[in-house]
């Protein structure tokens, strides 16, 4: 029962991780630059994401521009696009597989099949978490290095946006969920190795041995 409750808790974490990864992939505020002029009316906030760049004016206007050209983007943005999409796909597969392998569901067949499905789903979550940590860490490193570079003007420097933090937290949820699923299945298999099943008795062998003793008695 405790293992089933733990798997359900890991499944909830994985759901938050999936939604967070998808949200972080689509949000345009991976890095933010606030430019405040002499008048508060001229204040603008520039946001850059993986797929579009947006500008928000203090007057309430909001405009976005899609990034159509892939080859013109920096290498860390191209890598972030690929790894975040892979993270979303793997985490979605993990949700489907663990739904079959969880103990609280009636899908997946026998106990061994459900255990293998649960382990496979945990591996998908771990890979999705790793794919989510790579772009967020790399993107943050680029932002910090540009911010500390004295040759770059202040107007061109940015800070990490909410999408980066969402990606970090979502990757952590996916990693924790994957470890819980894999550990629960591993403990079950380890218990089977420590406590092996009792040897089976074969009645035919016992009958043959008894028959042998009976023949000796007649002699």
From TrEMBL:
<dbReference type="InterPro" id="IPR004031">
    <property type="entry name" value="PMP22/EMP/MP20/Claudin"/>
</dbReference>
<keyword id="KW-0732">Signal</keyword>
<feature type="signal peptide">
    <location>
        <begin position="1"/>
        <end position="20"/>
    </location>
</feature>
<dbReference type="InterPro" id="IPR017974">
    <property type="entry name" value="Claudin_CS"/>
</dbReference>
<comment type="function">
    <text>Claudins function as major constituents of the tight junction complexes that regulate the permeability of epithelia.</text>
</comment>
<keyword id="KW-0812">Transmembrane</keyword>
<dbReference type="InterPro" id="IPR006187">
    <property type="entry name" value="Claudin"/>
</dbReference>
<dbReference type="GO" id="GO:0005886">
    <property type="term" value="C:plasma membrane"/>
</dbReference>
<comment type="similarity">
    <text>Belongs to the claudin family.</text>
</comment>
<feature type="transmembrane region" description="Helical">
    <location>
        <begin position="75"/>
        <end position="97"/>
    </location>
</feature>
<keyword id="KW-0796">Tight junction</keyword>
<keyword id="KW-0472">Membrane</keyword>
<keyword id="KW-0965">Cell junction</keyword>
<keyword id="KW-1003">Cell membrane</keyword>
<feature type="transmembrane region" description="Helical">
    <location>
        <begin position="163"/>
        <end position="186"/>
    </location>
</feature>
<feature type="transmembrane region" description="Helical">
    <location>
        <begin position="117"/>
        <end position="139"/>
    </location>
</feature>
<keyword id="KW-1133">Transmembrane helix</keyword>
<dbReference type="GO" id="GO:0005198">
    <property type="term" value="F:structural molecule activity"/>
</dbReference>
<dbReference type="GO" id="GO:0005923">
    <property type="term" value="C:bicellular tight junction"/>
</dbReference>
<dbReference type="Pfam" id="PF00822">
    <property type="entry name" value="PMP22_Claudin"/>
</dbReference>
<protein>
    <recommendedName>
        <fullName>Claudin</fullName>
    </recommendedName>
</protein>
């Amino acid at each position: 029962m405790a293992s089933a409750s733990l798997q359900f808790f890991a499944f909830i974490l994985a759901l938050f991780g999936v939604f967070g990864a998808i949200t972080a992939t689509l949000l345009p505020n991976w890095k933010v630059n606030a430019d405040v002029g002499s008048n508060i009316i001229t204040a603008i906030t520039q946001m850059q994401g993986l797929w579009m760049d947006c500008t928000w004016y203090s007057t309430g206007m909001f405009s976005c521009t899609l990034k159509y050209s892939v080859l013109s983007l920096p290498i860390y943005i191209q890598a972030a696009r690929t790894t975040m999409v892979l993270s979303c796909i793997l985490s979605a597969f993990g949700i489907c597989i663990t739904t079959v392998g969880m103990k609280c569901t009636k899908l997946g067949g026998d106990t061994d099949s459900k255990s293998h499905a649960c382990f496979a789903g945990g591996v998908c979550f771990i890979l999705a978490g790793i794919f989510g940590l790579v772009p967020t860490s790399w993107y943050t490193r680029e932002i910090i290095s540009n911010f500390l570079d004295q040759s770059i003007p202040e107007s061109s420097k940015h800070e990490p946006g909410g999408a980066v933090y969402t990606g970090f937290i979502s990757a952590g949820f996916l990693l924790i969920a994957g470890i819980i699923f894999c550990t629960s299945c591993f403990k079950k298999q380890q218990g089977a190795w420590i406590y092996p099943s009792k040897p089976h008795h074969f009645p035919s062998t016992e009958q043959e041995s008894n028959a042998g003793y009976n023949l000796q008695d007649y002699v």
